[in-house]
Amino acid sequence: MAQASRQRHFRHHKGTSTQRRLDSEDFSRRNLGPRQFKESSPRVTSDSSQPRSGDTASLKDELVRLLEQAKEAGSDKAKETEDMQNFSQNAQEKLLLACRMLSLESPDDVDLMSKTVFALFNQDLVKAAAVSPSNRLIVDTLCRFFVSALKQDGAWGVGGTEANSSNSSASNASTEPAERMKIDVLRALSTVLFENGSQVKDSLQDLFQVVVTICGKVKRHEQSELRRMALNCLANLVHKTGSLFSTLHERMYEIILTNLATTAQYEGTPATSLGTTRRRDRGSERKLISSALRALHFLLQEDKSLSTRSIPPLMNVICRFMFFTSENSSTQPVSSTNSSAFTVGVIQRSSYSIPANTIPLTRSTGMYSNSLQILDNSEGSYITYLSMQSSDSEYSDSDSSVLQAQRKQHDGKVRLNALLCLQALARAAPKQLQPHWPKFLTSSNSAPMIPGTYKAPSLVGLIGTDPIYNIRSAACVVLGNIMDSSKQYLAMAEEIGKSHTGLLALSERIGLMTRELHESIALAMTSVDSTMDQGIVIQMMKCCSSIVANCSYEKMKPGLILLPLRPIDKYLDSNGKQQLRSLPSFHLGSRCSRPRINAPIPTLGFFLEPSLQSAALVFLTTLFSNTSAQSDVRRSILVKVTDSEDKIPRLISRLLGFIEDAQIPAVVRVEAWNALRAIGQFHFEVASVAWTWIDTALANEQNLEDVRMRSAGMLFLEEYSKSGANATDPLTATWWKDVLERHVLKAFAEENSSIKALGCDCISNLPASVFNCLPSRLEMLIMSLVLGTALDDHASTRAAACRAIGVFILFPSLREDSTHMSDMATTVLDLCHDPNMNVRVRASWAVGNLCDALVLLKTSGGQGHVLDEILTLTFWTKIMKSALSICQDHEKLKSNGIRAIGGLLRVTFEGILERERHSLVKDAVYALIKHMEQGSLKGRWNACYAMQNVLLNPDFPIGSTAGTSYALDSDMVSWTNDVYGALLQAVQQSKNFKVRINACAALSVPKTKAKYGDQAMLRKMVQVLMTAVQNLDNDQGEHAFSEFQYRDQLEVKLLRCLDHLLQLAGGVASLDLEMDPPPLLQRIIASRPQNVEETLITSTETEL
């Protein structure tokens, strides 16, 4: 029962439709029967326009029946049947009719309507989430009805809310009927608004005004329940609406913070100064805090600008209520009127001025005596999060254990909602949150962490010691989200070798927080009871994985990354893995998580769940994948060998034990393969020592029926072969031959498409030198399998085959074979029109490599005859059309098409250029011009590089046509000015230095003055380049910091290009230009290669 009650209290935080069920158990305690409505007399009126009393009575009976049916259907899980859909439609019609016929002045009518609507919407019997005219009608009509009812409360004849306000000692159970009815109306309204806020239109302004008015009565303690329901309405109104109500967000934000501030002041009142009734009223106050934080959470989710504009007050709220306990608030001193509203009623984070030895630190006793103790390494003293809670002695003897349990659950709701607010803040503004980490992340109050100071509560403290497991899980998730969005910030962490008593740099403060974070999470992992809290252990492991994945250890002291591993290592014990096939069931996340059966305890001390060991193996994978601590991990873990004669690394032996044990669930064995894959990828030398045993495991996996296991083995082989190709001691041809025959080629016979794709990926890692050493039969078999796989029915397999072809097409032995080149080119050109974009991306990359291979055939000596044989007009046309088509495809493909055009035009023969100059060649040139002037940065870089390739073809027509076959058309080739204009524009306007470098390289390619056209074009080029050199010196502050690493290279390119043009033009005098300072001449000379004679043209020297 306690577990069910706890689930009801926290159900609305799970992001499902059950969020609508706000305090439904409190609602069910009151009389929901139809008797009170049947005894009421129908309203009679003499106005003939009003509905007849008999019709109204009949409608009331219908509503009563709906209410009873809703309660009966509450336990029915099959709500998607046709009967339930008909019931929902009928209920909507009755509700619409009731909104027109029932009297707003009758309290019985309003009460019946609110209870019926709440029951129907709370049980999901009426669904209006889908945007449609009918759903908008029902939502808007109900909102208008309830808003009008809230405005008519004075006419209900049951006593106004102000009449009995003097009775401040009355409990919530004796709240005046008018206020209780308003609470019911607001509760029903909140259920209607949940996930339906976007459908509120006509009644929005009236609804918002009424709700805000109720929320604004923060000085009335007696109306806390009323304000809570109004806050729930605000929360549900804004939920999943995005920016639809952005004009109202600021006002909502102010109302929420005002309610939190006032409630915090009330919670700070000492319990001894209140009577028993007022102490019990604290439960409603805690509910109010929880609802306000929930509304704040939804608001931060929908409007991220609130986080970025006002993060300090938000952090004040969150940090106060993250560690909220009513026991601790009852012992807080009364704050003065000038103190902050958020300095009372919560666990206080102490200041650094309080030394540890001035605070009595004693071990917590009782049921929490075995909880995690936060150690103070410097003084040897400790204090717990739970020991900060006071005893129950200040409460009267009439407080039962049930009330105490409810109080703790209400406190947990406050902490949970505060954590959700922190999570929303971390997702919306991670960079703005980072300076506030010392307030909540670690147990120290502010950076620097001075040794010997009091340890304040922290997020990690909640993970290790909070009595409610949902809070601990939520804290793990929040900490993981914070880490995942702060990798760049954590990369600044640095630890100094000696103690520092002065001010610390930001990197050193981050380093101290990073160390404390590792120590705290490791201590929490060590202290958790794994026999009962396996769900929490799994969340902690995931949190550790996020920490290790995002922290940088290059400037930290050795051994830090190993701290979380030590408590996790026990979950990889081979003595416990044999029990996985006969595991008991656990209620993970429940406070009473215990085995349902009394089974013998294994050597490890408890049963290991598959998800527990999977989480431990995921952490290992993350640990091995962190590139900033490879030497530390390798030195401390992977070098340890077993005691046997095999001398295999101990950890690899344990992973292979998981993989080869058929009794272990497949999910655990797959994660073991993933951990082994990380070792092969980042620690190749260590994995190569154990290759004999890994090879045996791979061979055994081929006989398994489980596709996941075979895929995991092939994934390891793909990463291992990739690392081996780039290793200092690369894999030999003998190794490749054995692996291809025993493992890789067998993958092509699999029916599963993913395994075929992994086989192609493995072959793609085959080096050219090794491929040439393979037997001819094996070479032919590989090519046949890859080309055949490119025609597979599955897109992933075709994409992997395209990647393999793109690699093979650059192999010298294959590109020099016209038959192989023709087969590979035909295959990838056809796949450029594949309906799957991923296939087209890989195929376009292979086409770019095809054109690069053609360039290599032309530039390498003695291979011209192969190019003549391959590059026929038909073949050239097919490649060019495919490249132009790629340039018009998705942005991911355009760069490959641009690269292909540049390479193809570089090797195009003069006859083809002359034949196609008015069609395909012209289209190709202007495609390059277009991408030089606009498009993505990658596209512009590739376009400038491709134009450089085009200009390297001596037969390419550009510049003056004098003495050429193009002289009959005009004096200048038509695209000359456009080509050079686009290159000059890139030099002048591009903010990326690499684009400028490629543009300068392209301008420097032509070797004759005629290729540049006329004297005016040369003069323009020299003038632009001189201006670019001057701007490079003057406008340094306008460029991004990341670009300055290419500044020197760009300067050299500009000066060499200027030198080249001046020599061709005959000096600046012939161009009617003036070269300002003589230092420019010296810089041009200094930029020349050393093997070039440092002399300028005589006319240039004379002009200078």
UniProtKB/TrEMBL annotation:
<dbReference type="Pfam" id="PF13251">
    <property type="entry name" value="DUF4042"/>
</dbReference>
<dbReference type="InterPro" id="IPR011989">
    <property type="entry name" value="ARM-like"/>
</dbReference>
<dbReference type="InterPro" id="IPR025283">
    <property type="entry name" value="DUF4042"/>
</dbReference>
<feature type="compositionally biased region" description="Basic and acidic residues">
    <location>
        <begin position="20"/>
        <end position="29"/>
    </location>
</feature>
<feature type="domain" description="DUF4042">
    <location>
        <begin position="413"/>
        <end position="577"/>
    </location>
</feature>
<feature type="compositionally biased region" description="Polar residues">
    <location>
        <begin position="42"/>
        <end position="56"/>
    </location>
</feature>
<dbReference type="InterPro" id="IPR016024">
    <property type="entry name" value="ARM-type_fold"/>
</dbReference>
<dbReference type="InterPro" id="IPR052107">
    <property type="entry name" value="HEAT6"/>
</dbReference>
<protein>
    <submittedName>
        <fullName>HEAT repeat-containing protein 6</fullName>
    </submittedName>
</protein>
<feature type="region of interest" description="Disordered">
    <location>
        <begin position="1"/>
        <end position="58"/>
    </location>
</feature>
<feature type="compositionally biased region" description="Basic residues">
    <location>
        <begin position="1"/>
        <end position="15"/>
    </location>
</feature>
